């Protein structure tokens, strides 16, 4: 029997560390932490992003993480904590689960970029490299 998205989210939440906006803000300037925005480039352009975050669209994440892939991004091979986020936290929770299974140290921003922005934390213009 197939599982639904709620079960997938519950399973990911059991595996992946979640951080709220206050903790994420405290981690934001730490040199050993990398924020990764997995939203679509159109979302970045429309809504902005967390300053200094890397854009890694969800559809390319596994390819960008795997060093054997021709699409590998070296920053995803660094020994750092990767804080994944999306608009509300669901996509990033699943993305963090996959990244963690691929060997990265991960956390997911619960409440996502929406909670970050509502908390009054800094927002940069969105761009997609």
Automatic annotation (TrEMBL):
Domain Rhodanese stretches: 29-125
InterPro entries: Rhodanese-like_dom, Rhodanese-like_dom_sf
Pfam families noted in UniProt: Rhodanese
SMART domains, per database record: RHOD
Tree of life domain: Bacteria
Name recorded for this polypeptide: Rhodanese-like domain-containing protein
Organism: Acidimangrovimonas pyrenivorans
Lineage, top ranks: Bacteria, Pseudomonadati, Pseudomonadota, Alphaproteobacteria, Rhodobacterales
């Amino acid at each position: 029997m197939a599982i639904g998205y709620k079960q997938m989210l519950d399973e990911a939440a059991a595996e992946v560390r979640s951080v709220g906006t206050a903790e994420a803000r405290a981690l934001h300037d730490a040199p050993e932490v990398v924020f990764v925005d997995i939203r679509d480039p159109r979302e970045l352009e429309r809504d902005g992003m967390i300053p200094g975050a890397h854009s890694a669209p969800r559809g390319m994440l596994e390819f960008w993480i795997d060093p054997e892939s021709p699409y590998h991004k070296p920053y995803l091979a660094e020994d750092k904590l990767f804080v994944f986020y999306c608009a509300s936290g669901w996509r990033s929770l699943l993305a963090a689960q996959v990244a963690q299974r691929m060997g990265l140290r991960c956390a997911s921003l619960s409440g996502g970029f929406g909670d970050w922005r509502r908390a009054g934390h800094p927002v940069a213009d969105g761009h997609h490299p």
